[in-house]
Amino acid sequence: MKQPEICYVRPEDVTGDVLWLQKAEAHHLVHVLRKRARDPFVAVDGLGTAYACEIARPTKDGLEARIMRKSYGMGEPAFCLTLALAVPKPDRLEWAVEKGTELGIAGIVPLLTQRTVLPAQRVKAGRLHKVSVAAMKQCRRSRLPVIESPRSLAEVCARATDADLKLIAHEKETRRSIEGVISALRRDGGTTTVTAGILCIGPEGGFTAEEVAMAEAHGFMAVTLGCRRLRVETAAVAATALVMEKMGELG
After folding, report:
1. Is the dihedral angle over the CA atoms 93, 149, 143, 185 positive or is it negative?
2. DSSP secondary-structure letter at 148?
3. Which residue of 124, 134, 167, 221 sits 20 to 30 Å from the alpha carbon of 5, by its own alpha carbon?
4. How does 54-78 read in b/e, with b if 16+ C-beta sit within 10 Å?
5. Are 50 and 88 contained in the same domain?
6. Total structural domains in the chain?
7. pTM of the entire structure?
């Protein structure tokens, strides 16, 4: 049986047992997918709530729908991973946001490092929001990752006090792997108490030795991603997939 289509509804457009889809979402549902009155669909609000709906009243400005029932946490992992990645070119950052959203990350922090080339002004929050909304709908999640404003590595380290798992990818690290760190957690009492983590990915020139030392002083563990040098967005997606798989969220 075909699953209902997923649409995005802004939280402020939900009132009681009725919701309103904005024009772009309504257009896709009615004019692209050819849905009609009383056809079912699912609307997600990006905050974790999914609404099973049926179309009530399409208009030229949007669409009114009746909420039949709602659920919480659809498609969401139990483990909350924040991805902090050095700012790459805009199209590559968008790709990393898209794939990270599909893999289940809870937050994204564009990272400013000593070797970051592009300025923070190149990070377009509105565009990244649109990319993450599309990815959320495609992978049938109900929560959008929180996309923060660009921050320095020092800020990220200082704010990572609630993370149980703190990883920083470093090309000079040759022995400690993501799998090894998480396997050690299992030996020391299991991963059930590990609910949140943060993963830092540096620029293509890598983190400096001083940056890695600072992160380690804040409880981060340097890990290797293998012998090949990866682009920022490739490293971000590969490392995210490894963490989520080892935490039981993939496969």
Report:
1. positive
2. P
3. 124
4. ebeebeeebbbbebeebeeebebbe
5. no
6. 2
7. 0.92
